[in-house]
């Protein structure tokens, strides 16, 4: 009587935001539904690893909560034995298995919620297959992470608008050795080996699948608090003005006028971050950079898959390497946190929100791999598959509205970072030179918003000067 | 208990009685006995007041007989301990907590001339530093929880904008409640003519009590009811600010961002409820392998699912906190943990505050127990089942009783009071042994936990030993109309019973108002009512009490309906 559900592998973490649509695959059997994984060719059933599904315990049940696992991983199961206790909207029920075998991998932990019909564990027929089952579970687990609330927004395909402006440059610069930097560590964290996080932060991190070790704490003495985890998980894109590029008009027509639409999780996180930014004393410094040389370089290497975003990120990272303070942040109001790596976050508008994929160690990667990385990040963002460390580890943020013709704008500082740079369009400008002549050069305006507790005006000025030199003589960008 | 107090005060008729103080040293002033009832009891027993006169006669005659016996026993003491020949009081109670108060009220009701000695404040731990102020905090936390639970409110169709609280206001509420109850307690005793002797009480010798520095009072019988203080294990430095006990926590002087609670029993659990509702995050440190070790395992598990897991709480089990250092010079509170079994160092926690809720230690130092050859056991005064104090030779000490936390039998305010009443019953000629298995206990989290009698493992062990069968019945709050109306369906009631005769062995409830629901079961145990009789009792619909109704009805008892106390036809 068990329906063999031929659904694909359903990731466990869907339980965070269960998709009610999937309840359609439910049956009203009070037993665990176990489906046999079939080969793609649809041939004979060879695989002996079965999925244990969340059963439908009542006609109205759309999701169930795992009260407790009666069996633990690796334990032998006999047909008809209780495996798991599930809480439905009505009662707690023991759920039994139809098959003999071994409980190979538990995919939804106790306390977790899973939609009816989604896999909650794997059952291996023999002991030898336990390992195989586990690796399968792990595989699905990682893809599951992508459904974390940050990216799990709403319906349609999110279209990340890769925003890049045409730029050109001139002027020389030499890359300086990177200063030795230490990131702030909790005094109790045993030199960084131990993560100090508050109970709720730990709980949230587990729930949202955020790696605590990858987060810097903003609580007392550098402790990781819930806010930090939420910030990390929700891809805190702080930029004041980022809009979806092409799909914008279409999106607008989808909005039903005269209604109040509550924030999605991501929009809520953005809202919180925006409010939080009000507690940071920011100031702004602008600079006009000539982009002729950069434009020329871009034209030359575009065919090799280099994107403008990667070029800008690279230039910024090289400048940051010379000005570590601009890559620092103030987490507790009492100290500088000098980040050990330069991770450039780039704001990208996606459907219903925005996200900041991060180009890690942008100063150390060459422009080609950086460009490839960026393409990969954008694809993942579009598929809502960014891993937390791919959108929450930025140390400096870039926001670019140049492709809309915006010539200058103002960005809001993302909490937990020290500075963000708003990049305007590069456009032909009549420029007077020192020798009294007037010429046309492509110029763009950048505007950096920074936390004045750690980054002072002179710091930004020096940074921008370095950046303009790099962009105006971009030979270092290609190594 | 509290209810009877407030009633006695609000009843003006009770007040004038305070003028009938026992100034005279006559052991039995010839007053109409019914005047000595406290307000509530007089009302409850009002219809039978006519019959109290003959009773009073018989009692005074009995008291004469008793005093004869006392002097006889004194004669045999060879005069060495110089016990007094006539007494200032019939009964002196050392300690005016809930236990002493309960004993004093009952003693007066029974016609004893009674004094109560208090070295600190009337009301003791419960009223001043325990159950009472904590209930004020829990009342706040319960409301905060409701107001913060958007999902829950939305389900009810309510809209509430962000709820906040004023720490000082909450603290004041707790303090005011304690003051009010303390006032009620004091007034009720004064009104009934209990002498309140202020000063530290100590036993000087048989039937002799020293109050303060040099006042000596004699009494025919003495009850020790000195209670307990928070127990602080070695290595823990309590500074009253960042490392605190429940005494400090109830003042709610600050709400830390992160507080570690050492011990996950009643006290720890209740405080976790308060602190998380007020926005703190909590880390439990529990020496045993499981949280909430005192509870029935099934209830504990469910409670953990509801009270711990979804809240901002994490925990370390199977660890001892060997050293706790208060916050100083910008450093946080540090807690060093070792594995409870291997004793190996495990981890060091750094938190903003630590609450030590590792239980309570009896407060029996300086009581002069050496004067009467009594040795405490881990601080507890050894007593027999009638609360008579046992000396170091294993003999009963005449005229000396010990009730409440000081004897450690069951460290609950109402248990102390019940023990005190039991002692007074014995003193006034009626043998009485308190059945501790009928004393309910409650933990006032949201939702509440309550229990009476044995846990399932205890019952099974007993059954094995005595060779009877044990059965368990359970009902869920999810099926209760009233609970669903409140949208509080989370909860379980569990009955452990003997299917052969219908005896209730234990009842455990987790759910909305569990603390108020338990009494139907505890009364049944106390009165020996069997399940087959309870099944026929009627409960109002729709009420939470139907959870118990269902519970009793779902029990499968093989015995036939016994003689029901209300089985006789009643003309209506």
From TrEMBL, chain A:
<dbReference type="Pfam" id="PF00364">
    <property type="entry name" value="Biotin_lipoyl"/>
</dbReference>
<feature type="domain" description="Peripheral subunit-binding (PSBD)">
    <location>
        <begin position="196"/>
        <end position="233"/>
    </location>
</feature>
<feature type="compositionally biased region" description="Low complexity">
    <location>
        <begin position="135"/>
        <end position="155"/>
    </location>
</feature>
<dbReference type="Pfam" id="PF02817">
    <property type="entry name" value="E3_binding"/>
</dbReference>
<dbReference type="InterPro" id="IPR023213">
    <property type="entry name" value="CAT-like_dom_sf"/>
</dbReference>
<dbReference type="InterPro" id="IPR045257">
    <property type="entry name" value="E2/Pdx1"/>
</dbReference>
<dbReference type="Pfam" id="PF00198">
    <property type="entry name" value="2-oxoacid_dh"/>
</dbReference>
<dbReference type="GO" id="GO:0006086">
    <property type="term" value="P:pyruvate decarboxylation to acetyl-CoA"/>
</dbReference>
<feature type="domain" description="Lipoyl-binding">
    <location>
        <begin position="49"/>
        <end position="124"/>
    </location>
</feature>
<keyword id="KW-0012">Acyltransferase</keyword>
<dbReference type="GO" id="GO:0004742">
    <property type="term" value="F:dihydrolipoyllysine-residue acetyltransferase activity"/>
</dbReference>
<dbReference type="GO" id="GO:0009534">
    <property type="term" value="C:chloroplast thylakoid"/>
</dbReference>
<dbReference type="InterPro" id="IPR001078">
    <property type="entry name" value="2-oxoacid_DH_actylTfrase"/>
</dbReference>
<feature type="region of interest" description="Disordered">
    <location>
        <begin position="133"/>
        <end position="155"/>
    </location>
</feature>
<dbReference type="GO" id="GO:0045254">
    <property type="term" value="C:pyruvate dehydrogenase complex"/>
</dbReference>
<dbReference type="InterPro" id="IPR004167">
    <property type="entry name" value="PSBD"/>
</dbReference>
<dbReference type="GO" id="GO:0009941">
    <property type="term" value="C:chloroplast envelope"/>
</dbReference>
<dbReference type="InterPro" id="IPR011053">
    <property type="entry name" value="Single_hybrid_motif"/>
</dbReference>
<protein>
    <recommendedName>
        <fullName>Dihydrolipoamide acetyltransferase component of pyruvate dehydrogenase complex</fullName>
        <ecNumber>2.3.1.-</ecNumber>
    </recommendedName>
</protein>
<keyword id="KW-0808">Transferase</keyword>
<feature type="region of interest" description="Disordered">
    <location>
        <begin position="12"/>
        <end position="41"/>
    </location>
</feature>
<dbReference type="InterPro" id="IPR000089">
    <property type="entry name" value="Biotin_lipoyl"/>
</dbReference>
Automatic annotation (TrEMBL), chain B:
<dbReference type="InterPro" id="IPR016156">
    <property type="entry name" value="FAD/NAD-linked_Rdtase_dimer_sf"/>
</dbReference>
<dbReference type="GO" id="GO:0004148">
    <property type="term" value="F:dihydrolipoyl dehydrogenase (NADH) activity"/>
</dbReference>
<dbReference type="Pfam" id="PF07992">
    <property type="entry name" value="Pyr_redox_2"/>
</dbReference>
<keyword id="KW-0934">Plastid</keyword>
<keyword id="KW-0676">Redox-active center</keyword>
<feature type="binding site">
    <location>
        <begin position="411"/>
        <end position="414"/>
    </location>
    <ligand>
        <name>FAD</name>
    </ligand>
</feature>
<keyword id="KW-0809">Transit peptide</keyword>
<keyword id="KW-0560">Oxidoreductase</keyword>
<feature type="binding site">
    <location>
        <position position="286"/>
    </location>
    <ligand>
        <name>NAD(+)</name>
    </ligand>
</feature>
<feature type="domain" description="Pyridine nucleotide-disulphide oxidoreductase dimerisation">
    <location>
        <begin position="439"/>
        <end position="550"/>
    </location>
</feature>
<dbReference type="GO" id="GO:0009570">
    <property type="term" value="C:chloroplast stroma"/>
</dbReference>
<feature type="binding site">
    <location>
        <position position="405"/>
    </location>
    <ligand>
        <name>FAD</name>
    </ligand>
</feature>
<dbReference type="GO" id="GO:0005739">
    <property type="term" value="C:mitochondrion"/>
</dbReference>
<dbReference type="GO" id="GO:0050660">
    <property type="term" value="F:flavin adenine dinucleotide binding"/>
</dbReference>
<keyword id="KW-0547">Nucleotide-binding</keyword>
<keyword id="KW-0520">NAD</keyword>
<dbReference type="GO" id="GO:0045252">
    <property type="term" value="C:oxoglutarate dehydrogenase complex"/>
</dbReference>
<feature type="compositionally biased region" description="Polar residues">
    <location>
        <begin position="1"/>
        <end position="11"/>
    </location>
</feature>
<feature type="disulfide bond" description="Redox-active">
    <location>
        <begin position="126"/>
        <end position="131"/>
    </location>
</feature>
<comment type="subunit">
    <text>Homodimer. Part of the plastidial pyruvate dehydrogenase complex (PDC) containing multiple copies of three enzymatic components: pyruvate dehydrogenase (E1), dihydrolipoamide acetyltransferase (E2) and lipoamide dehydrogenase (E3).</text>
</comment>
<comment type="similarity">
    <text>Belongs to the class-I pyridine nucleotide-disulfide oxidoreductase family.</text>
</comment>
<protein>
    <recommendedName>
        <fullName>dihydrolipoyl dehydrogenase</fullName>
        <ecNumber>1.8.1.4</ecNumber>
    </recommendedName>
</protein>
């Amino acid at each position: 009587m068990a329906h063999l559900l031929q659904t694909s592998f359903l990731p466990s973490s869907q339980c965070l935001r269960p998709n009610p649509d999937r309840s359609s695959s439910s049956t009203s059997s009070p037993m665990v539904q176990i489906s046999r994984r079939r080969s793609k060719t649809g041939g004979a059933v060879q695989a002996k690893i079965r999925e244990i599904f969340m059963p439908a315990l009542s006609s109205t049940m759309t999701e169930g909560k795992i009260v407790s696992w009666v069996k633990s991983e690796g334990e032998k199961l006999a047909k008809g034995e209780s495996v798991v206790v599930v809480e439905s909207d009505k009662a707690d029920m023991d759920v039994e298995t139809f098959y003999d075998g071994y409980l190979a991998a538990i995919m939804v932990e106790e306390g977790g919620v899973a939609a009816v019909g989604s896999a909650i564990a794997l059952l291996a027929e023999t002991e030898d297959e336990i390992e195989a089952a586990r690796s399968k579970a792990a595989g699905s687990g990682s893809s599951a992470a992508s459904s974390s609330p940050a990216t799990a927004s709403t319906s349609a395909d999110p279209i990340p608008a890769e925003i890049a402006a045409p730029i050109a440059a001139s002027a020389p610069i030499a890359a300086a050795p990177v200063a030795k930097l230490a990131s702030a560590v909790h005094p109790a964290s045993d030199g960084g080996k131990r993560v100090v996080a508050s109970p709720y932060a730990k709980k949230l991190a587990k729930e949202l699948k955020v790696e605590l070790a990858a987060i810097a704490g903003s609580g007392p003495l550098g402790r990781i608090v819930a806010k930090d985890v939420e910030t990390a998980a929700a891809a805190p894109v702080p930029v004041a003005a980022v809009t979806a590029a092409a799909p914008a008009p279409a999106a607008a027509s989808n909005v039903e006028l005269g209604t109040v639409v509550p924030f999605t999780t991501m929009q809520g996180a953005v809202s919180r971050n925006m409010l939080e930014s009000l507690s940071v004393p920011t100031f702004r410094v602008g600079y006009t950079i000539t982009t002729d040389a950069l434009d020329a370089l871009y034209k030359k290497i575009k065919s090799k898959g280099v994107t403008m975003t990667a070029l800008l990120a690279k230039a910024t990272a090289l400048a940051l390497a010379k000005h570590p303070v601009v890559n620092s942040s103030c987490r507790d109001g009492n100290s500088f946190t000098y980040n050990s790596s330069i991770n450039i976050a780039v704001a990208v508008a996606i459907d219903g929100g925005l996200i900041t994929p991060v180009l890690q160690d942008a100063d150390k990667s060459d422009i080609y791999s950086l460009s490839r990385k960026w393409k990969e990040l954008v694809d993942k963002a579009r598929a809502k598959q960014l891993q937390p460390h791919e959108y929450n580890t930025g140390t400096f943020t870039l926001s670019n509205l140049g492709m809309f013709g915006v010539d200058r704008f103002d960005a809001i500082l993302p909490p937990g970072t020290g500075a963000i740079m708003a990049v305007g369009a590069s456009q032909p400008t009549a420029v007077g030179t020192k020798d009294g002549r007037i010429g046309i050069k492509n110029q763009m305006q950048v505007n950096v918003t920074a936390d004045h507790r750690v980054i002072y005006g002179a710091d930004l000025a020096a940074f921008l000067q370095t950046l303009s030199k790099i962009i105006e003589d971009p030979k270092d960008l290609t190594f | 208990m509290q209810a009877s107090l407030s009633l006695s005060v609000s009843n003006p008729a009770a007040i004038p009685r305070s003028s009938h103080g026992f100034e005279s040293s006559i052991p039995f002033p010839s007053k109409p006995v019914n005047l000595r009832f406290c307000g509530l009891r007089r009302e409850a027993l009002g219809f039978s007041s006519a019959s109290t006169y003959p009773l009073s006669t018989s009692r005074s005659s009995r008291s004469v007989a008793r005093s004869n016996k006392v002097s006889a026993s004194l004669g045999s003491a060879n005069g060495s301990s110089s016990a007094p020949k006539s007494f200032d009081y019939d009964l002196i109670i050392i300690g005016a907590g809930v236990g002493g108060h309960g004993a004093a009220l009952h003693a007066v009701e029974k016609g004893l001339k009674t004094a109560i000695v208090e070295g600190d404040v009337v009301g003791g731990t419960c009223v001043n530093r325990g159950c009472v102020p904590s209930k004020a905090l829990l009342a706040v936390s319960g409301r905060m929880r409701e107001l913060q639970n958007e999902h829950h409110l939305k389900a009810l169709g309510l809209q509430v904008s962000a709820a906040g609280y004023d720490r000082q206001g909450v603290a004041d509420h707790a303090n005011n409640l304690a003051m009010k109850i303390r006032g009620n307690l004091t007034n009720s005793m004064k009104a009934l003519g209990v002498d309140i002797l202020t000063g530290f009480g100590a036993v000087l010798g048989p039937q002799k009590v020293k109050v303060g520095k040099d006042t000596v009072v004699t009494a025919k019988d003495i009850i020790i009811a000195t209670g307990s203080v928070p127990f602080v294990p070695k290595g823990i430095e309590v500074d009253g600010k960042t490392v605190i006990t429940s005494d400090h926590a109830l003042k709610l002087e600050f709400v830390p961002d992160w507080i570690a609670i050492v011990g996950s029993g009643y006290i720890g659990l209740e405080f976790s409820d308060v602190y998380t509702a007020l926005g703190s995050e909590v880390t439990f440190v529990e020496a045993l392998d499981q949280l909430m070790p005192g509870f029935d395992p099934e209830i504990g598990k469910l409670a953990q699912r509801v009270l711990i897991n979804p809240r901002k709480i994490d925990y370390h089990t199977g660890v001892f906190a060997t050293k706790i250092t208060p916050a100083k010079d910008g450093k946080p509170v540090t807690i060093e943990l070792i594995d409870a079994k291997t004793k190996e160092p495990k981890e060091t926690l750094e938190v903003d505050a630590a609450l030590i809720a590792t239980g309570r230690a009896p407060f029996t130092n300086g009581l002069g127990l050496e004067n009467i050859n009594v040795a405490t056991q881990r601080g507890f005064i050894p007593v027999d089942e009638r609360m008579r104090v046992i000396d170091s030779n294993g003999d009963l000490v005449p005229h000396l009783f010990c009730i409440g936390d000081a004897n450690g039998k069951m460290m609950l305010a109402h248990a102390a009071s019940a023990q005190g009443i039991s002692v007074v019953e014995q003193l006034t000629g009626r043998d009485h042994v308190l059945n501790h298995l009928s004393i309910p206990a409650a933990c006032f989290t949201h939702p509440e936990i309550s229990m009476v009698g044995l846990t399932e493992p205890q019952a099974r062990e007993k059954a094995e030993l005595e060779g009877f069968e044990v059965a368990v019945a359970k009902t869920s709050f999810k099926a209760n109309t009233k609970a669903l109306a409140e949208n509080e369906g989370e909860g379980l009631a569990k009955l452990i019973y003997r299917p052969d005769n219908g005896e209730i062995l234990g009842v455990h409830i987790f759910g909305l108002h569990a603390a108020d629901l338990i009494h139907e079961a505890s009364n049944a145990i106390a009165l020996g009512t069997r399940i087959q009789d309870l099944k026929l009792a009627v409960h109002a619909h729709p009420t939470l009490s139907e959870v118990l109704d269902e519970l009793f009805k779902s029990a499968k008892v093989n015995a036939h309906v016994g003689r029901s106390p209300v089985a006789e036809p009643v003309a209506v």
